[in-house]
Amino acid sequence: MPPSVALLTTIVESVRQLGVPTYTPAQDMPKQLPAVRIALVNSNPTDAYKGAREYEYPFQLDVISGKNKLVEGLTLAYKVQDALRRLQVDGYGVQLVNEPSLSSMIDSSTNEILNRQIISVTYNIIEATAF
User: Fold this and answer.
1) What angle do CA 77, 81, 84 make, to 5 degrees?
2) What is the pLDDT of residues 103-118, one digit of tens each?
């Protein structure tokens, strides 16, 4: 499995373990809120080791909650941040490049007003065979 897919799959599983539906920008937002949208921003090879390459992957996770559910959204966002700090991917060495950062906004781009907690996080990942 490519490192980007392994990392994305692990992030999705970690969020789902919190009991929250997840989706990607290519999917429709679930009807049930809160929900978390997970997007891989880009991929950059950063270094090469014996037969393996190290990559840097920035992700954006949007914790979306209903109009009057700001406290619920913020609480969930902190739980997601905690899960992101403890992420481990089988067969890979994973390291946080930066502490998951959180910003908050009101999203009125849909037919209802939603709270959005935006989490940005970047990981370095390398195949464990390189060590």
Assistant:
1) 140
2) 999 988 777 889 999 9
Residue owning tokens 């994305």: 8
Query: How far is 69 from 62, CA to CA, in rounded Å?
Result: 14
What tens digit of pLDDT does each residue of 21-72 get?
A: 999 888 988 888 999 999 999 877 777 666 677 889 999 999 999 888 999 9
Amino acid identity, position 62: D
Q: How far is CA 65 from the centre of its chain?
A: 16
Asked if residue 57 lies in contact with residue 26, where contact means CB atoms within 8 angstroms, the answer is: no
Largest CA distance in the chain: 53
Predicted confidence (pLDDT) at residue 131 exceeds the cutoff of 60 = no
CB 126 within 8 A of CB 86: no
- Read off the pTM: 0.88
Q: What pairs with residue 55 in β-bridges?
A: 45, 125
Whether residue 56 contacts residue 126, with contact meaning beta carbons closer than 8 Å, is answered with no
Give CA–CA dist 67/113, Å, rounded: 5
